[in-house]
C-alpha cells in the first residue's frame, strides 16, 4: 500500500518523466496485489481531493483492460472491493462505516466530526461524551431512557431516575445501565466494546439473547450472538473524554489506530515497529503533534507521502523515488 501511495505522489507531482511512467506500469502489471493497492489509493484520493493528473496518465481501469484474461480482471476488482479492510488504519469518518450507517449518522440527534470530542447534557442530567466521528440518537419515553449508538464512541455518566431505566442499543445488542459510568464503542469488526468504571452494566445480545452483567473495572466485547469473557478495564481508556490518549505499555500499532480515529486520511504503521511499546500522553486534538512526539521517544520517523497519507516507519528508512 505504501508503494502505491509513493507512485501516486510521484505521478501527481508534475515531476514524473516517461521512464517513471513506464516503471509504474511495470509495477502495476507485476501483481494483483499492486493493482488492488493502486485502486485503493485512487479510491481514497477521490474522497479527499479532486484527481487531476498533471502527466495525462491513463486511468487504472484502462491499464487493467490490457490484462489478457477476464478472470484476472474480476479478481483484481474483487481485490479493490476489499481495500477498506485491514490494510488501512483510517480513512476518516467513512473508513469502515457502511453507507447506511453514514446516512444515519448525519441524521442523528447528536454527532461529531473527525477529531472532535463533545460533551452533551441530556434532559435528565445524564452526561454523554462523543468521541471522534461518533453519533447517537436520543429517545426518552415515560418509562424508559434510550440511546441508540449509530457509530463511534460514547462515554456515559447516567443520572439517577427510579422510574425510568437507562439503555443503550447497538446493532449487536442492548446495554442496561445499573447506576453507572461506562464507555460504549462500535468496533470496526462489527462488535460492540463496553467498559464499566462505576456501577454495573447488563449486556444482552440482539440475536441469541445472551446476558452478562459487567461490574466496575470490567470490559468486554460482544456480537449479536455472544459475549466475550470479561477482562480488566483500562482506567486510562476514558482519558479520550479529556482529549488525551494515555498509553501505558501500549503497542505502537494500537496507539496509531487510536490516533487514526482522530485524523483525516490514512495512517499506517510498518510491521517492523508496530510492536514497540509506548508510554505517555498524546493530544487527540493535534495528531500531527502526537506523531512528532512519538518520533522523539521511539526509533521511528513519520513520512507524509501525501497530505492525507502518512506512515510510521523505522528511523532512517530511505524514501526511494521509485518503489
From TrEMBL:
Pfam families cross-referenced by the UniProt entry: DUF4880, FecR
An example Gene Ontology molecular-function term: sigma factor antagonist activity
Matching entries from InterPro entries are given as:
FecR (IPR006860), FecR_N (IPR032623), Ferrdict_sens_TM (IPR012373)
All residue ranges annotated as the FecR protein domain in the record: 109-202
Q: Where are the transmembrane segments?
A: 76-94
Q: Which UniProt keywords apply?
A: Membrane, Transmembrane, Transmembrane helix
FecR N-terminal domain: residues covered: 2-44
Q: What is this protein called?
A: FecR family protein
Amino acid at each position: 500500500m505504501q508503494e502505491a501511495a509513493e507512485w501516486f505522489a510521484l505521478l501527481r507531482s508534475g515531476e514524473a518523466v516517461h521512464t517513471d511512467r513506464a516503471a509504474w506500469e511495470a509495477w502495476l502489471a507485476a501483481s494483483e496485489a499492486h493493482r488492488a493497492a493502486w485502486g485503493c489509493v485512487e479510491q481514497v484520493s477521490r474522497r479527499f481531493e479532486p484527481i487531476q493528473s498533471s502527466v495525462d496518465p491513463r486511468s487504472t481501469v484502462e491499464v487493467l483492460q490490457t490484462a489478457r484474461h477476464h478472470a484476472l480482471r474480476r479478481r483484481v476488482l474483487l481485490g479493490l472491493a476489499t481495500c477498506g479492510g485491514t490494510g488501512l488504519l483510517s480513512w476518516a469518518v467513512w473508513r469502515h462505516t457502511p453507507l447506511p450507517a453514514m446516512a444515519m449518522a448525519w441524521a442523528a440527534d447528536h454527532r461529531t466530526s473527525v477529531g472532535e470530542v463533545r460533551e452533551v447534557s441530556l434532559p435528565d442530567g445524564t452526561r454523554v461524551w462523543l468521541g471522534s466521528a461518533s453519533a447517537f440518537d436520543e429517545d426518552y419515553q415515560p418509562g424508559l431512557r434510550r440511546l441508540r449508538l449509530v457509530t463511534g464512541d460514547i462515554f456515559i455518566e447516567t443520572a439517577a431516575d427510579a422510574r425510568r431505566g437507562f439503555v443503550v442499543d447497538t446493532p449487536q445488542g442492548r446495554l442496561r445501565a445499573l447506576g453507572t459510568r461506562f464507555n460504549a464503542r462500535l468496533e470496526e469488526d462489527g462488535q460492540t466494546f463496553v467498559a464499566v468504571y462505576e456501577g454495573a452494566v447488563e449486556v444482552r445480545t440482539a440475536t441469541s439473547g445472551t446476558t452478562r452483567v459487567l461490574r466496575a473495572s470490567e470490559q468486554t466485547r460482544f456480537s449479536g450472538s455472544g459475549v466475550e469473557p470479561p477482562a480488566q478495564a483500562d482506567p486510562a481508556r476514558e482519558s479520550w473524554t479529556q482529549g488525551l490518549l494515555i498509553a501505558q505499555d501500549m503497542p505502537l500499532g494500537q496507539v496509531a489506530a487510536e490516533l487514526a480515529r482522530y485524523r483525516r486520511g490514512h495512517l499506517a504503521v510498518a510491521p517492523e515497529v508496530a510492536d514497540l511499546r509506548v508510554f505517555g500522553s498524546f493530544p487527540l486534538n493535534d495528531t500531527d503533534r502526537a506523531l512528532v512526539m512519538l518520533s522523539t521517544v521511539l526509533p521511528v520517523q513519520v513520512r507524509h507521502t501525501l497530505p492525507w497519507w502518512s506512515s510510521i516507519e523505522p528511523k532512517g528508512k530511505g524514501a526511494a523515488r521509485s518503489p
